[in-house]
Each structure stands twice: as structure tokens, then as C-alpha cells.
Amino acid sequence: GGLDYGKRVVRDYMFELIRAVVEDYDFEGLELDWLRTPQCCEPNPPPAVVEMIFAWHAELKSLTRARAQRSGWPYAFGLRSLPCLGQMRSVGIDVPAMARAGLLDFVVASNVHQATWDEPFDRLRHELGPEVRLFGVINTEPNWLPCHDPAGGVSGTRRMYTTPELVRGNAAGKWTLGADGIESFN
Questions:
Q1: What is the DSSP letter of 185?
Q2: Which residues contact 50 (CB under 8 A, 6 or more apart)?
Q3: DSSP bridge partners of 33
């Protein structure tokens, strides 16, 4: 479960928490993580709920613009998202509409913990436009195939951070596919 942003009390509460971060701390931007648990409201919400959630993001963008104006420095606003933007819309977050409205400075497209190797940055660029910077993510695991270390008696998933070649190869692939930058997560 997650909070239902279709409810005004949830949006107000989260806005105040985020407002405190934007106004009271010295960060360079704000990234909302809609990837880890992409639950914003009931699945397949009616258009009115999607519009309310869109308006809430617009309020956040106004907050970050005001911070940039006060400080004289850019204050980027973006989000972590599944690369399947239709799936994001089905949980109430219309990423392409947000991009068209100029609300997003960047989008970090990823797969939660599993690294992506063929991220469709060309499709994302087409859907989000040239103004939105796209970031690829180097995640914890190259894939979810289990492995076993007989010497240590340990079973589990492989970790990319233990293999420099995997990390470099994953980053190079994302650059080649059109990412504007690379983010490391987990």
C-alpha cells in the first residue's frame, strides 16, 4: 500500500514536508521517487484524479522556481520513473503531460533494483521532448538471476558494484542509447 494522493489531506501533508526541504535546506534540486513504489492513487484513476495529481506537481514546480529565483541558482525538479510512461499514467502520474507543461527538468528512468541494459531513451526523448534531461541508472544488480558462491556457501544475486566491468559497460550502454547523464542508485 501507499498514500493516496487523490486525497487532498495527503497532498497537503506531503507538500508541507517537501516545502520544508526546498525552503529550509541547501540542496540543488528535488527528485521525487515515483519508481520505488509507484503508487499514487487507486489504479486506473479517473481523469479528475490524474488532473489533481498533475496540479500538485505543478505546485511543487512553482515552489522550486521560487527557490531558484530567491537564491539566484537553478533548482532542478524531476522524478524517478518507470520507463513505461503509460504504466505511470495508470497510477495517476502523467509524465508526458508534465513534460509538455514544462514541469520537469529531468526524468530518471529505471527498473527499481535491477539494472536496465536496453533503456528506450529514444522513445522517452520523443515522448518527453528535448528540454527534459534523461538519466540512466546504474542499479545494484545486473539482473535477477541467482548465483552461488560454493567457496563461501552464499547464494543470492550478483551485485554490480563488485564488478567494475559491469558498471562501466552499463553506463556506456546508457550513454550510447541517448542518456544525458548517469545516476547511481542503491
A1: -
A2: 89, 92, 93, 94
A3: 80
pLDDT mean over 128-150: 85
Task: Identify whether the C-beta of residue 78 lies closer than 8 Å to the C-beta of residue 90.
Answer: no
* Residues 6+ away with beta carbon under 8 Å from 145: 157, 158
**169 torsion bin: left (phi>0), alpha (psi -120 to 50), beta (else):** alpha
pTM of the model: 0.89
At 21, which amino acid appears?
V
pLDDT for 108-132, tens place per residue?
A: 998 877 778 888 999 999 999 999 9
Q: What does each C-alpha distance from 151 to 35, 78, 148, 164 come to in angstroms?
A: 36, 44, 9, 22
Burial 4-20 (b: 16+ CB within 10 A, else e): bbbeeebbeeeeeebee
**Beta carbons of 64 and 56 less than 8 angstroms apart:** no
In this prediction, residues 17-31 reach a mean pLDDT of: 96
Using DSSP's 3-state secondary structure scheme, residue 62 falls into helix
